[in-house]
């Protein structure tokens, strides 16, 4: 039997003497190479510590059986602790073996087969318009996945890419490179809550966590969750609060993991071209031991009421046809019926709060269902309002009267034409309301004004008067 010091020294000498490509290694494939021997040498102190513990336990049993005071404490210490030259190495080795390894997933799209899958959509997409293939940039000699499609009005066109399951932790950082003809494409991840059943009873509850949005139209841009103000663990904690308000306190984020990266390709009506490359997920801690026990459905976002992806035209008359013109008008989702406001043909009581920079999540948590804004809602705010089931009251876009107000503003409950209005504002408001009604593709959407005088005259032009009471 080797002594501890001799065993460690011999292994190191042999490892240093024999290179990986030595004749001995080539003749005998089973013979360990230098790197293997170094790994074995590193594990020796760990095994010695384990051996000392086993000896301690065995001697302790004999000691208790014979005489509880026959072995002094110093003997126990000598049996437990290895010599000083091995102690630090053993501790470091044990810590390395015990800590989870952070891995990386990388898809460079160099093969010829497409890997992104079309998922949900709330707008009509003609089947003939959808083109998906792998292409090559001849200048950079780089391959990527390319998608070309045309769509009607809506807010969501989802595609997803499966990735190895990874626990949601702060170090998890999905990213990809993208180039598109339009800005507004958003990177998201699908999160699976394995201990919470879906309301549809088709697997665990899943949800989407939103990420960065593509801005540089016509240029390559990297979208990464590392550039976000909140990491994925923090985003999930915020989303969990909303899910519990919607589904109940039983929603559990224990062992939550991501299993897909998702892109929302919707940027408006018409044709869009998207190029995708270098999908990476840094900080992966394998969650397959959990994911193997559950089965997720095909629906990407179960916490929503969006139809499954289909190339068929939308049957609802309130939605635009995929074959219709982008300027074709449709009935408003919000109408006034006497003194009652109807949203999608159901009575609606707006609980309005003025927006002063707070997050929509916070305002929704206070119990409000409508946010009043002094500026036209941005694309991100419209998306957030849809996700949180909020409505918006805001001024129309400045292009009203010159170009159509498209269906991306469907979360606008009413158009606001001003505050503290009086008699001298009457003609200007009348002209602006006429421009709004001519441009708005949603016929009958209410117009609201806050007035301080001439209420009867303003009532001839707007649908809702706010008298500031």
Structure description:
- The chain is of the alpha/beta class and 469 residues long.
- It is 28% helix and 28% strand.
- The chain has eleven helices and 22 strands.
- It has helices at 4-17, 23-27, 34-66, 73-80, 84-98, 232-247, 288-291, 360-365, 379-388, 426-439, 455-459; strands at 103-107, 117-121, 131-137, 142-151, 157-167, 173-180, 186-197, 204-213, 221-224, 257-264, 270-284, 330-331, 334-337, 340-343, 346-348, 352-354, 370-372, 391-394, 412-416, 442-443, 447-450, 464-466.
- Strands 1, 3, 4, 6, 9 and 11 form a six-stranded antiparallel beta sheet that branches. Strands 16-17-18-19-21-22 form a six-stranded parallel beta sheet.
- Strand 3 (131-137) and strand 4 form a beta hairpin.
- Helix 1 packs antiparallel against helix 3 (34-66) and helix 3 (34-66) packs across helix 5 (84-98).
- The protein is globular, with a radius of gyration of 32 Å.
- Mean pLDDT is 76; it is low at 1-32, 60-99 and 297-325.
